[in-house]
Specification:
By secondary structure, the chain is of the alpha+beta class. It has six helices and ten strands. Strand 9 and strand 10 form a beta hairpin.
Length: about 300
C-alpha cells in the first residue's frame, strides 16, 4: 500500500512561527519611523531653502529700492531741466557746419551742476540722459574697470554700481570710440532698457538720441547701431591705426545693427558705445552706438 501522507513543505510552518511575527512587526515599525524622520528632514530643508530665498529676494528688492532712491536724490540735487529739445528725429550735420552753429541750434534738455558733483566724486566725467527712460545718471571713470561695478559715486556699496567709462578712454570723450559700461538690472534700472532697441521694433523711432553733458561740453548722441556681441569683440576698440581702419570698423558696426537709421558717421566723428550684459550666450553684451554732436 502506497504511503499517501504528504511530506511537509519546506518552510510551510515557518511563516506561522510566532517567534517570527514580532521581528516582522518590528521591521515595519522601523520603516515607518525612518519615513517619518525623512519627511521631517525634507520639511526642514525646504523650509530653510524657502527662508533663504525669501531673504535673498527681500535683500535684492531692498538694494534696487535703495539704488533708485540714491540716484534720484543725486539727480534732484545736481540737475535742472531746460526747455526740452525735440528727440523724435536726429538731424544730420550739414557739410561744413561749425560747432558754434550746432550749439546755437540746440541745447541740452538738462543742466548739470558739475561743481557740486565733483566735490562728491572727483571721478565724475559726465551725465547721460535719455528722455522718457530711466537713463538719467552720472558717469565716472576710475583707475580700473572693477571699482565702480558695485559702488556708488561716493565709494559706498551699491548693487547697481555706477555707469563708468572704460579706464583706457580719455575722460573728455576725445577718443574715436568712448565706451560706457552699465549693469542690466532686473528692475529695469541702469542700462537694462538698452535691450529694448533689440526687442521692440518701434523703440529706436521713439528714442533716437541720448544727451551727454560734461564739465566742458554738452553733446547730443545720435544712435546709429545696436546689436549683441561678445565681451571681447572688436566692438570695444578705442583707437585705430588710421582713418581707413576706423571707417571700416564703423561699417562693420552698422552692418550688425538690429535697426536702421539715417545717421551718417565717418572717421571724422567721435562716437560713444553704451554696453550692458545680455544673455543670448555666455559673456554676451548688448551695445548701443551713437555719434556725438556738440550742442549748447
Amino acid at each position: 500500500m502506497k504511503n499517501t501522507e504528504q511530506p511537509p513543505i519546506s518552510g510551510r510552518y515557518e511563516t506561522r512561527d510566532p517567534s517570527a511575527a514580532p521581528q516582522r512587526r518590528g521591521r515595519k515599525k522601523k520603516t515607518k519611523f525612518n519615513t517619518t524622520a525623512l519627511l521631517l528632514v525634507l520639511v526642514m530643508v525646504f523650509g530653510v531653502i524657502f527662508g533663504y530665498s525669501a531673504y535673498r529676494l527681500y535683500s535684492m528688492m531692498s538694494e534696487y529700492h535703495d539704488s533708485r532712491e540714491r540716484y534720484s536724490a543725486v539727480a534732484d540735487s545736481a540737475i535742472s531741466s531746460a526747455a526740452l529739445a525735440p528727440t523724435t528725429a536726429p538731424f544730420a550735420v550739414n557739410p561744413g557746419e561749425s560747432a558754434a552753429a550746432l550749439q546755437s541750434a540746440e541745447s541740452s534738455p538738462i543742466q548739470v551742476d558739475f561743481n557740486a558733483l565733483l566735490q562728491q566724486c572727483p571721478d565724475i566725467i559726465g551725465w547721460i540722459y535719455c528722455e522718457d527712460t530711466v537713463i538719467n545718471y552720472p558717469m565716472v571713470r576710475g583707475s580700473d574697470n572693477d571699482y565702480y561695478l558695485h559702488r556708488f559715486i561716493d565709494g559706498s556699496y551699491n548693487g547697481g554700481g555706477t555707469l563708468f567709462m572704460d579706464c583706457k578712454c580719455n575722460r573728455d570723450f576725445s577718443d574715436p570710440n568712448s565706451i560706457i559700461y552699465g549693469h542690466h538690472m532686473n528692475d529695469g534700472s541702469m542700462f537694462a532698457s538698452l535691450k529694448k532697441y533689440r526687442n521692440d521694433p518701434d523703440y529706436y523711432g521713439k528714442h533716437p538720441t541720448f544727451y551727454i553733458n560734461t564739465p566742458t561740453q554738452n553733446y547730443r548722441m545720435d544712435v546709429f547701431a545696436g546689436f549683441v556681441c561678445d565681451a571681447d569683440s572688436d566692438t570695444y576698440t578705442i583707437g585705430f591705426a588710421d582713418d581707413a581702419s576706423y571707417d571700416s570698423w564703423l561699417a562693420r558696426m552698422i552692418s550688425q545693427s538690429d535697426f536702421t537709421t539715417n545717421v551718417q558717421v565717418s572717421s571724422e566723428d567721435h562716437i560713444v558705445t553704451l554696453s550692458t550684459c545680455s544673455y543670448e550666450w555666455y559673456d554676451a553684451r548688448y551695445v548701443v552706438l551713437g555719434k556725438l554732436v556738440p550742442i549748447g
